[in-house]
């Protein structure tokens, strides 16, 4: 969730995806994700704890209402980063979902622009996390997509002993560390950062938060740094 966030303006984050797991005819919300190409969604490696069928929902705003722009697409294959080993804090927490058929690009459903390769966000950059994760630690999930302003905490600060210490790696992005935070269910969802021409780029995908609570002071939400994985993303898409 986004703790202490606010309702997003409908369809203002048109690359926001929802990853769902199907079991016994029911669908369960697992993670957020980012549409990066009409055929591909980027999410976290830890979002696939079960073997079975996963679906992607695009163009969603209020999960209780069928509003029209939604696209519900089965997955063809899920490719988790080969170096991810079931522990998000060790890094490489990234996966790509190939959709069974292409998403239709509309006003409400559009692929994101990704961070430039190896780009490092300056400390204090004001980015937004978005998702339908719980709105408090152990709390309930919201119906409407939430957004939360999270200032970037650079590696130098985030890796200090009283912050995340050695748990955070240079292939991560930290953001927040105060009242606004990512929480359970936001995993895999985007960290959206502004560019100079006032468009948006996705620089992170939500990976983990503190076990002491989502909005623990000096424990910012930790994201997989997308700019570190551009070659892997491009290669994976080209080969599949």
Automatic annotation (TrEMBL):
PROSITE patterns: TRYPSIN_DOM, TRYPSIN_HIS, TRYPSIN_SER
GO CC aspect terms: extracellular space
Tagged with keyword Protease: yes
Keyword flag DNA-binding: no
Superkingdom of the organism of origin: Eukaryota
Domain Peptidase S1: 2-238
Molecular function as annotated in GO: serine-type endopeptidase activity
Keywords: Disulfide bond, Hydrolase, Protease, Serine protease, Signal, Zymogen
Protein name as it appears in the record: Peptidase S1 domain-containing protein
Organism field: Oryctolagus cuniculus
């Amino acid at each position: 969730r986004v703790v202490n966030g606010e309702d997003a303006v409908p369809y203002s984050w048109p690359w926001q995806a929802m990853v769902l797991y199907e079991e016994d005819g029911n669908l369960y919300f697992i993670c957020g994700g980012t549409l990066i190409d009409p055929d591909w969604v980027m999410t976290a490696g830890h979002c696939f704890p079960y073997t079975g069928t996963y679906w992607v929902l695009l163009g969603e705003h209020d999960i209780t209402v069928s509003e029209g722009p939604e696209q519900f697409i089965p997955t063809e294959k899920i490719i988790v980063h080969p170096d991810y080993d079931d522990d998000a804090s060790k890094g490489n927490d990234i996966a790509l979902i190939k959709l069974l058929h292409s998403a239709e690009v509309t006003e409400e459903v559009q692929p994101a622009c990704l961070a430039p390769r190896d780009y490092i966000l300056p400390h204090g950059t004001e980015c937004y996390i978005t998702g339908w994760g719980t709105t408090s630690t152990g709390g309930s999930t919201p119906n409407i997509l939430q957004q939360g302003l999270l200032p970037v905490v650079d590696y130098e600060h985030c890796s200090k002993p009283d912050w995340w210490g050695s748990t955070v790696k240079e292939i991560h992005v930290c953001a927040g560390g105060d009242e606004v935070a990512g929480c359970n269910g936001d995993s895999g969802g985007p960290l959206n950062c502004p560019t100079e021409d006032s468009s948006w780029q996705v620089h992170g995908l939500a990976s983990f938060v503190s076990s002491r609570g989502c909005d623990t002071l000096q424990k910012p939400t930790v994201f997989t740094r997308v700019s570190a994985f551009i070659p892997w993303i491009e290669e994976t898409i080209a080969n599949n």
